[in-house]
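Private note to self, pasted from the team thread so I don't lose it. Backbone tokens:
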């Protein structure tokens, strides 16, 4: 689980460089996250479960990256 947090850490950290912001492929990152979510089972017993806080942060981070890209266009 710690490895997955590192995988999407760049979406959660503020990006100050214009070139670093454009290097992030948001669609690909979100597709990877969806693939990770498809492996989860929704049960009250053993097994990995969905971390809603982490999912919200990934969505918020990707929205921030996208908004920066739009902002840099103007």
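Design output:
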């Amino acid at each position: 689980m710690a490895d997955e947090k590192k995988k999407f850490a760049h979406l959660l950290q503020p990006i100050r460089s214009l070139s670093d912001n454009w290097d992030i492929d948001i669609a690909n990152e979100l597709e990877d996250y969806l693939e990770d979510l498809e492996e989860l089972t929704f049960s009250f017993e053993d097994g990995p479960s969905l971390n809603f806080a982490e999912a919200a942060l990934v969505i918020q981070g990707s929205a921030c990256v996208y908004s920066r890209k739009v902002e840099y266009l103007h």
